[in-house]
Amino acid sequence: MSRKKDLTLEEIEQRFREIDAKEPEEPTAEDLAAFAEYEAEDPAEMMTLEDFDKEQKKYSGKLSLRIPKELHRQLAQDAKENGVSLNQYALYKLAR
């Protein structure tokens, strides 16, 4: 597994110069539609950051399930075959 090398200050500055030298991109039709949709939203319906934080704190991110042993075995086997943890594999399956 290769490790990313740390950039020197000079390399970072060079990359920023390259970015700054590029021509600005024009917004696409999809971008303009998204901007218009945002502008049309009712601010009263928007959630504040504080309210969002409160809502998120209601959930721990943990879920405990009881499943048949055979399903557990099959999920664990599939996770191993895919080179991921059972947790990662179950999350993948749930998200689909």
What does this structure look like?
- The protein has 96 residues and is mainly α.
- Helix content is 58%, strand content 0%.
- The chain is built from five helices and no strands.
- The protein has helices at residues 9-21, 29-40, 49-56, 69-81, 86-95.
- Helix 4 (69-81) crosses helix 5 (86-95).
- The longest helix is centred in the N-terminal third of the chain and has 13 residues, at 9-21.
Task: Summarize this entry quickly.
This protein has 96 residues and is mainly alpha-helical. It has 5 helices and no strands.
Give the topology, please.
Elements: H1 9-21, H2 29-40, H3 49-56, H4 69-81, H5 86-95
